[in-house]
Write a structure and sequence with these properties.
- 40% of the residues lie in helices and 17% in strands.
- The protein has 552 residues and is of the alpha/beta class.
- It has 4 domains: 172 residues, Regulatory protein AraC (Jelly Rolls); 102 residues, Homeodomain-like (Arc Repressor Mutant, subunit A, Orthogonal Bundle), CATH 1.10.10.60; 103 residues, 3-Layer(aba) Sandwich (Rossmann fold); 137 residues, Rossmann fold, CATH 3.40.50.1980.
Length: 552
């Protein structure tokens, strides 16, 4: 575990300020480096702007605005580094401290109580690392440092004394706020420090008992509060950091799995592989292979996500009643009818990799697990961005996600602006109609609601919110239909339950249908079933196009 200020400075009141400077880096400097090496004095770095990195004892410290780093004397520290670009310029105060020696008359008892033994000092000096601190309020911290900077060039001994006293006051406040024994430090702050420690030392042995003891909490209290803050148990969080790092190593290096496992903190290759499969859904070897070569993928109901990432599936889903997803334009890709429970792959169309959504059980698709490595998507359809990221991750297309999502969000923003002017005060609803039922889709969930009502800001009819509150869909009868007097009505027809062609359209001849305001005013719009009854960036983009065409 990291050392504390108390161990390094057992008598911090004997420290004085030797020098303070304010450094403003420029990306035009050679090699993007700022010289910062070991010295015989302790130093404090206070980052006021930009981002950078500092390497000490083989540990990389990420520097961000608001960070304070105490660097012990004689610690080998590599130069500060920072990225190119004005947004990454690193501005920081650097304070050099002089640590005074104890008086020869100091009591032996006092030294024994407050100072580490000679053996302890040896151990500490061999394993020192910079210590991350914090100071609140931040504005007060910067104000005092600016005063120290402006007033250090004085020849008057009395003013110099005032200068030292001002530093001592600031230094005392800094240490008190970061004293691990200080009960006034709230649990959230201490947990954040613990999380930072995990991120910086994920490849070292970490136990929950040590983490809890370090911030003076019981194991059960630490675990409970940690999960409240992160949504994960401590060791699950540690492993997620390790596994994300292992993904980078699998992508960028040819290191053996054994070496990668050791590098990120796992005890052996077999445990690492098992945890990786649980975490990523595929084995480390398959994950690496997808990043090195194109893959023949079969992803029924998920072709939207695969195609959005620039990967054409080897087969496409189809259904004898619903047909295929024409909106994807996969005209040259062979079809695979999922409704045929015993259908198998032809040898020429056998996939290297299979992706399945949560509907796989309905079609008995898990029978293909023996054919090729299989990845199961565990996100709800409404969280299509997470599905896209998972798909990109397992297919080796992670670099495309930002552009795909960004293009959709820009399209939605522009559409929302246009529709705001043309549909102000007008209500909207969406119905899926079959031969046996009418289904009304809700506002927050389902294929349609998040796009229509959230992304585009359309106004749902009050009964949409009332009947389908927090539901994906709700079945309604003719009496309820007569009450659904929305200004605009989008509909699609589901022919799955039709005994004869056209059975699903008989509703249009009913009196209740004819009495709807949208019907009378010619504001009913039929849309493509497969495009609207799907999740995915392409599907949702098609919905936006259809809505703009009739409402903008």
């Amino acid at each position: 575990m990291p050392h504390t200020i108390e161990q390094i400075l057992p008598m911090p009141w004997l420290c004085s300020l030797q020098h303070i400077q304010y450094i403003q880096t420029s990306h035009l400097e050679p090699n993007n480096r700022v010289e910062y090496t070991s010295s015989d004095s302790h130093s404090i770095v206070v980052v006021t702007q930009g981002q950078g990195e500092l390497m000490a004892q083989d540990v990389m410290f990420k520097l961000n605005q608001g960070m304070i780093l105490f660097v012990p004397s004689d610690l080998p520290v590599l130069p500060l580094q920072y990225g190119a670009g004005s947004e990454s310029k690193l501005h920081y105060y650097k304070l050099n401290l002089v640590s005074g020696e104890t008086s020869k008359n100091a009591s032996i008892t006092q030294l024994e109580e407050r100072s580490p033994t000679f053996q302890q000092t040896q151990v500490i000096s061999e394993s020192l690392s910079p210590i991350e601190l914090s100071y609140t309020p931040w504005s007060s911290c910067l104000e005092i440092l600016d005063q120290l900077l402006q007033q250090q060039a004085t020849e008057d001994w009395l003013k110099h004394w005032d200068w030292q006293l001002r530093f001592q006051e600031w230094f005392r406040t800094l240490l008190l706020q970061n004293d691990s024994r200080n009960a006034s430090m709230d649990h959230r702050t201490r947990l954040q420090q613990s999380i930072r420690y995990i991120r910086d030392h994920y490849n070292q042995p970490i136990t929950v008992d040590d983490l809890a003891a370090d911030i003076q909490l019981t194991r059960s209290s630490y675990t409970r509060q940690f999960k409240e803050m992160t949504g994960k148990l401590p060791l699950d969080y540690v492993n997620s950091i390790r596994l994300e790092r292992s993904k980078q190593l699998l992508q960028l290096t040819d290191d053996r799995l054994h070496d990668i496992a050791q590098n990120v903190g796992f005890s052996n290759e077999y445990y690492f592989s098992r945890r990786f499969k649980q975490y990523a859904g595929i084995s480390p070897g398959v994950y690496r292979r997808h990043y090195r070569q194109d893959v023949r993928v079969f992803a029924p109901y998920l072709e939207d996500f695969v195609l959005a990432l620039g990967v054409e599936p080897v087969l496409q889903f189809s259904h004898h009643s619903w047909g295929k997803q024409h909106y994807l334009g996969l005209d040259d890709v062979p079809e695979f009818d999922v409704a045929h429970q015993d259908a198998m792959f032809q040898e020429s169309h056998k996939p290297d990799f299979i992706m399945l959504s949560d509907g796989y059980e309905r079609w008995n698709l898990d029978r293909f697990e023996q054919v090729a490595p299989t990845f199961y998507v565990n996100h709800r359809g409404e969280d299509w961005r997470a599905i896209l990221r998972s798909t990109a991750d397992v297919l080796g297309k992670g670099d495309r996600v930002r552009d795909v999502v960004g293009s959709y969000e820009e399209k939605a923003r522009e559409a929302k602006s246009l529709l705001k002017r043309s549909t102000q005060g007008k209500t909207v609803a969406f119905l899926r109609i079959s031969a046996t039922e009418m289904v009304l889709y809700g506002v927050q969930q389902g294929y349609v609601g998040p796009v229509m009502y959230q992304d585009l800001g359309l106004l749902p009819h009050p009964l949409v919110q009332q009947w389908a509150l927090q539901k994906r869909r709700v079945s309604i009868g003719l009496e309820q239909l007569g009450q659904l007097q929305a200004d605009h009505l989008f509909i699609t027809f589901d022919c799955l339950d039709s005994a004869m062609i056209g059975d699903e359209r008989k509703l249009l001849d009913s009196r209740e249908w004819q009495q709807l305001s949208a019907v009378k005013n010619g504001c009913v719009y039929e849309v493509d079933f497969m495009a609207w009854m799907n999740y995915g960036v392409i599907s949702h983009g098609k919905k936006i196009d259809d809505i703009l065409r009739v409402l903008a």
